[in-house]
């Protein structure tokens, strides 16, 4: 799976898994299945109200199109109000972000939505698929124009294994000051670290690292995320038999 590597100003490195082509296609299919169901429901409601039986077809068409407007704007509105996700993306655990890994703006969501007319609908998706395959950051034309991409937000198993891995007998404690921590402290540190990593929020990681530096009174010569990981391991190794 292709990755998007980000080095933040605070020297915290994150790697995003770019969403696979298959997951993007399935998310798109789910979203447009929802839109189709909505359009059918609206048609049924308009029929039940008898608007198709009026002598003014323009009125009928106008009412029908007005009620369909939410479906027309669905991708743009969902991504804007749900942090880069539509229902399809939520199910497939993907989201739209800037290529620097931060949250996209309303303008960027709008640009990629407008461009979908060209790279998805006018060419039956061929241009969008070709662009996703060919570009470094798996971007369709709309993503290139908006400077965005789509990432996978499935739980990082490597992180999970790091946090809960069984520590070997040969492990050496780097920061004996972890003796100052309680079980509650250690669990809170682990939970905050997981949350920051899963959200790809380096501000959380940096704040936690700074708090630990102050609490333990140490000067780690390593990146913030490495320091936190070592502190967690040190604590669980120190109190492994308790």
From TrEMBL:
<keyword id="KW-0472">Membrane</keyword>
<keyword id="KW-1133">Transmembrane helix</keyword>
<dbReference type="InterPro" id="IPR010432">
    <property type="entry name" value="RDD"/>
</dbReference>
<dbReference type="Pfam" id="PF06271">
    <property type="entry name" value="RDD"/>
</dbReference>
<feature type="transmembrane region" description="Helical">
    <location>
        <begin position="110"/>
        <end position="134"/>
    </location>
</feature>
<protein>
    <submittedName>
        <fullName>RDD family protein</fullName>
    </submittedName>
</protein>
<feature type="transmembrane region" description="Helical">
    <location>
        <begin position="58"/>
        <end position="77"/>
    </location>
</feature>
<feature type="domain" description="RDD">
    <location>
        <begin position="18"/>
        <end position="146"/>
    </location>
</feature>
<feature type="transmembrane region" description="Helical">
    <location>
        <begin position="25"/>
        <end position="46"/>
    </location>
</feature>
<keyword id="KW-0812">Transmembrane</keyword>
């Amino acid at each position: 799976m292709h990755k998007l590597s980000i080095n933040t100003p605070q020297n915290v490195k994150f790697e995003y898994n770019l969403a696979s082509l298959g997951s993007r296609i399935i998310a798109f299919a789910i979203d447009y299945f929802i839109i189709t169901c909505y359009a059918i429901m609206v048609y049924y409601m308009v029929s039940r109200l008898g608007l198709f039986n009026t002598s003014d077809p323009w009125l009928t068409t106008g009412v029908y199109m007005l009620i369909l407007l939410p479906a027309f704007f669905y991708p743009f509105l969902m991504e804007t109000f749900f942090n880069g996700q539509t229902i399809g993306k939520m199910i497939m655990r993907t989201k739209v972000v800037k290529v620097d890994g931060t949250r996209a703006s309303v303008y960027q969501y709008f640009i990629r939505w407008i461009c979908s007319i060209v790279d998805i609908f006018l060419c039956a998706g061929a241009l969008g698929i070709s662009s996703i395959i060919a570009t470094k950051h798996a971007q369709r034309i709309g993503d290139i124009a908006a400077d965005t991409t789509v990432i996978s937000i499935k739980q990082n198993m490597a992180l999970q294994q790091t946090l809960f891995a069984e520590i070997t007998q040969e492990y050496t404690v780097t920061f004996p000051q972890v003796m100052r921590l309680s079980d509650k402290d250690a669990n809170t540190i682990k939970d905050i670290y997981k949350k920051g990593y899963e959200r790809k929020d380096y501000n959380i990681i940096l704040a936690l690292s700074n708090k630990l530096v102050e609490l333990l009174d140490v000067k780690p010569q390593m990146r913030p995320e490495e320091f936190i990981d070592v502190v967690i391991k040190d604590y669980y190794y120190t109190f492994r038999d308790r």
